[in-house]
Write a structure and sequence with these properties.
heterodimer, A: alpha/beta, 4-stranded antiparallel beta sheet, B: alpha/beta, abc type-2 transporter like fold, 2 domains, 5-stranded mixed beta sheet, about 10% strand, binds adenosine-5'-triphosphate, binds magnesium ion
Chain lengths: ~250, ~375
Amino acid sequence: MEAAIEVQGAVKSFGPIRAVAGVDLVVGQDEIYGLVGPSGAGKTTLIRMICGLLKRDAGKVRVLGHPIPEEKRKVEGRLGYMPQERALYRDLSVEENLLFFGQLNGMKRDKIRKRTAEILDFMRLTHLKRHLAENLSGGEKQRLSLACALLHRPELLVLDEPTVGLDPALRQEFWKHFHELRDHGHTLLLTTHYLEEAGRCTRVGFMRAGKIQAEGAPAELRARVARVQGGTPSMEEVFLSFASTEGK
Amino acid sequence: MSAARVWAVAMRVLRQMRHDVRLIVIMLVVPSLAMILFGFSFSGDIRGVELALIDEDRTDLTSEIVNSLKSDPTFQVTELLPAQDPEKLLLSGYQAVVRFPDKFTSLYYAHFAMGVATEAHGTLHLWLDESDPQIASAIRAGIADALMDVGEGGPVEVEEHPLYGVEVRFIDSFAPAIMGYVVTFVCSLLTLLSVVREKVDGTFERLWAAPLRRGEFILGYVIAFGLVALVQSALILGIGKLVFHLVINGSVFWALTCVILFAVGNVGLGTLLSALAQTESQAILMFPLVVLPSVLLSGMLWPLQAIPAVLRPLAYMVPLTYGNRLLRAVMVKGLPPWSEPVGLAGVLIFLVFTVVLATLTLRASVKQ
Ligand SMILES: Nc1ncnc2c1ncn2[C@@H]1O[C@H](COP(=O)(O)OP(=O)(O)OP(=O)(O)O)[C@@H](O)[C@H]1O
Ligand SMILES: [Mg+2]
């Protein structure tokens, strides 16, 4: 099976800052791949390159079998991107935001209506559907933002901190939903700062200073740290270990 | 290019407006208020117009008319001896010259003697400076009043000798300028703000990750603001007609067509300027860049001939200069757009230039 995302030697600098400094990454089609790492590590920059929003300085990026950004057009309808900023039209209502992004992705109106009802229900936003996005709470905006990315059922979901600002119960449900999506053949690439969430990914990449320092299934990574430190380390301890050891 | 997505953008922009009641109110109030304010402030009473009077007839009838003119506060009447050159008088500072020729009274009464079928009538000659239509119309009204006082609108024909050009009322020549100005303001500045806000809020990122083309994005904005410009222009024309009895010599169809062409160019301009602004405050600071030249240099308030020669090349770089020229030709002179080739070419070049350039620079304006 072809990989959903293939990145080879990707580099991106902003002036003197090397935000992404040579990343190799392969995400298979049946994966939930989690990128974790300290703030400023380059996670968002890598993701924006994958979505074709940033030109890379060097390296190769392929998404769903197409080189990016050269064949971006062949990919964009099949991709759902949730930016780190909420990126909503604050002067549109909840359902109008969904309507617009649905139409942009070529959905028919009645299909949008059906999907909107479904997704608002899942996101617990139905009672707010006529409210302006700017009046939503932080978590509500976050849910609407995710809904906008999920609405057209894209094969590949690229989610930048999808669960930040959500209460634990809702995060629990989100993760259930992510696994359902995966079971239905969707691929997910996401970033998170919640390390217990990293434990629920199929694979995790620890990113630091523009590089992926370590990568593997959560159990594998725990085992690797356990060999050095002993005991049964939590993902948190794994994170701290990789963050301090310059990633062996 | 997908019509559905273009439509999606257009509808979204309009929907965003619908949520902003204040914006809608402003968009309707601004053109109405501009029309009403300018209309009233320029049709207020005019007093003390310098009027030179040459009475070559010297009868009871003419002195009655002269007295009536003298009692009208519109005029500051000076009686002069015959055999003066009226055009020289105008150039020397009088704003109007009235002359009663020597057969005025006899022809006037001949009319009554010979019955209604006759062509006979008194002819009063009027020379006036037409370049200020408000003053010119005050003079005409004052003279008509004086004639009414005397002869119940008897058989007097006023023969006008305009110093410049044809007869134009101020409001007639100003309505096209207001339309052009409102369209400039609303289309370029609201587009600028709206696009910059997409950048600030990050919705741009979503758009370009979705299957949306730059051309589709701009066309969507063009449709939404084209509709807005159409509604505003209709409002200006409606108020002009109802309240100020605006005379539109040309076709309303061509007028609105030209307004829309001009509006499209302004949407392009707004999008183009958005490439230079990263924040809403920066965008707002660009407003004077658009507004000041449009107000001062476009021929909206005073003719280009009144602009100092050093600034005139600048005036020819202001889009509204061409917009005004085109709209005035169509609405005041009653010409089809192609009979004003400079104005039409200016507007079309503006449109193509800004829309093409905006399309090319749009992607570059996403933060890198
Ligand atoms: N448009 C930009 N211009 C200049 N520098 C940038 C830009 N975008 C990112 N950077 C810099 O690149 C580095 C990586 O940023 P990035 O947003 O990828 O980090 P991140 O891993 O997503 O962090 P966080 O977890 O806080 O979201 C940072 O030092 C940031 O300041
Ligand atoms: Mg980030």
